[in-house]
């Protein structure tokens, strides 16, 4: 089942069911007005959504099909009660540290890094990334995220895994220029993590077939910059902590409410135990600009790839083994914010 | 106007209007079903709520008055789309640093500290603080918080100030034993900040009269531990950044959605330019246990006041100049969580 949220002038939008090939949608708001409402009552709502999805797939539904236009979509949750983003590809973290000649503590391989992100106003998948100043070092971060049901405090890995309801992609927009100063203050990210965007649709795990093993998505994440392949890192490779571990980490000292979004952190693959190579050189590339800049810094002493400029376009998508898009594409242009 | 949220078996509860003396409430759900719904459409909803409040105050309302029982209340927002907590009483931060012999950067006096908190499942004002382990160093933090309307990205101080809709109290429960390890990882708080609780009612700024100057609440915050006065720090004193500055800080790189909760951080007063004294010794006391432990450490080399134990009771309240409770009392007991 694929779910999306249509912009309809309200803050939470209208819940729609999307066909497997992403070509059409059907209004699902009679079953639940919004995706949050569906998640609030998933045990009752999901079977009814599945029934409608099955009817649509079988061609037996009398519901009116409309052509899907991703620019008319909100993120699946236009706002959420929680956005907890892990950093599960420890390779990425190790590289960041190496670029500034800092040792990475051994515990980073056993204890997940996670930050609490802002979730009150997500960007739609095709909304502009409007920023006041490119000196802030605007960057994309291609990630996977799950949406959970209620998770009890102290949840086991099995409880955490079983609470995963939906999967989607993320562009965790980051302001690299603001990160060092903000992290030095000791309280984590705030201004350096502006609004994130999510893929047009969120899918139930079964839509991924055997590419979903209960904790990881074993497919490449396609990140394109200005129409050129920038990243093809496999989300199932080098993910030190799977989603069950990330959700359990988030729930250690408090319960998670239904509709909590938990992210993987920037997808990142090693190459022969070391940093990866650009896609153009036959490597898996990168899911954020910071990573190629770190490698440039390690190799040549200075970064040469610039962060995002006004007019730059970022596309993040994942294709199934049959070559079709699973979640639709996050496709955003960076623009200058004018207050 | 005083607003509260009655527990009614739903996640967001039922919006009620509370009488000025906190003795009674009237159902307001016909105007807006929940407080978030009211905030989503404040310009239209607020005048109708004010009209009802005026009728109740005048005794002309036909709405049924019920006796208010704070144990039946959720936090005003049982869950929120944002909980951004500042640390505006820099005195508190300076003390923490001093206790571990760390210099505080001068910029802390000009650039607010703020962390993104979890907002998906707040505790009710009289709900137990259920934790698995007292070794986590369970502590209260008495704070003030505001709830905002929509705030544009890059908001000016005036825009930020004008977006403040409601004021309430917070118990920002903290796990001191988990903080050093978590902050050392560099991504800020996560497991060390479990669910917070808010006061029974949230009030519009006019309810504070001249105790509200547009940015600060000039009244003592009463924090009691096991029935004894623990803190009487004045929230209007030593607040280095007022709420306009905190809201503007939060909105620097992204807009804030209506219903964003922005906190002051632990209320803390200096005494003659140095650390305060316990209430029993004639001082303003402390709004968290960590602070008295820091002072004990500075003065004697070791902390002697223990963090919260199972069975301990924390009460946080603020009285108006006439001696009556403005927000009702946060009144929580620490209990052992059993999964």
UniProtKB/TrEMBL annotation, chains A, B:
Pfam families the record matches: FAA_hydro_N_2, FAA_hydrolase
Residues in Fumarylacetoacetase-like C-terminal domain copies: 83-334
Matching InterPro entries: FAA_hydro_N, Fumarylacetoacetase-like_C, Fumarylacetoacetase_C_sf
Transmembrane segments: none
The Fumarylacetoacetase N-terminal domain, residue ranges: 1-79
Source organism, top-level taxon: Bacteria
A single GO molecular function term of this UniProt record: catalytic activity
Protein name: 2-keto-4-pentenoate hydratase
Organism encoding this protein: Thalassospira lohafexi
